[in-house]
Design goal:
single chain, mainly alpha, 4 helices, 76% helix, elongated
């Protein structure tokens, strides 16, 4: 199958540079990008187990928000206690 797309010159130049750095021609590089994209599962599929677990947990959205805010606060405390990297 062959597909033709119109890109702004700047985008084509960036793609061509990335292809060159990857050591392939532009059509091969674009094909690899598309194949990589197609191999990823849709976001809905990735999130389904988390959504199901939340639905079965009995938690409200407010409960979840509170839990996430506490976790975020704890992560910041932990990060500060480690000091600079």
């Amino acid at each position: 199958m062959s597909v033709t797309i119109q890109l702004p010159i700047e985008d084509e130049a960036r793609l061509a540079m990335k292809a060159k750095h990857a050591g392939v021609d532009l059509p091969t590089y674009v094909e690899r990008l598309l194949k990589a994209e197609m191999s990823r599962p849709p976001l809905e599929e990735i999130l389904k187990p988390v959504q199901d677990a939340f639905a079965n947990s009995g938690m409200s959205e407010d409960d979840l928000t509170e839990l996430l805010l506490k976790a975020k606060k704890q992560m910041r405390v932990d990060r500060r206690s480690r000091g600079p990297v």
